[in-house]
Task: structure prediction
Amino acid sequence: NAGVMQNPRHLVRRRGQEARLRCSPMKGHSHVYWYRQLPEEGLKFMVYLQKENIIDESGMPKERFSAEFPKEGPSILRIQQVVRGDSAAYFCASSIVGYEQYFGPGTRLTVT
Amino acid sequence: QKEVEQDPGPLSVPEGAIVSLNCTYSNSAFQYFMWYRQYSRKGPELLMYTYSSGNKEDGRFTAQVDKSSKYISLFIRDSQPSDSATYLCAIGPGGTGNQFYFGTGTSLTVIP
Result:
């Protein structure tokens, strides 16, 4: 059983461009969480989704950030008009019931 | 006050030592307690998961939860160099929220 997949693993964007991060959950998992991790900081919750529904987006910045988890295909975290402060590692985690979360390898976003 | 506090270390122990890692939390409504191990530039790996007070053992790892003190611990027996990593506690959800709160991580080095 493949684990949580994330792509790309590394993403470089210039300021003002859009970043699109993808997460394919483990087979049978319908819950997805997105986190951001900055150096020397813990994982910060961004958004919690189930198939076709955003359950909790209280950790997501109100502007430029959006997330979706369509009926078919991976979950997408989209960052529009990226700024240098968006540079971080972004992790997604999947779960069957929303508690035991299994993480992907992360996408490292660098904004130049 | 942060939802979860974790001593960042770093912690350095000789091979074979018993390691104790700890977190405190602020919200008595939190119900689920997890420990993750994260190697450098990798995604967190779920080690232990529990939702009740008391001890849970899995091989060389023991997770302990004291809800009355809002204090959780992870013990590693017979530590190995391969245990060298950053250990993260994750606690939640509580009340009407859905998110988990992560500690900043404790860096552990086991010296051969």
About this structure: Chain B has a mean pLDDT of 92. Residues 52 and 67 of chain B are 8 Å apart (CA to CA).
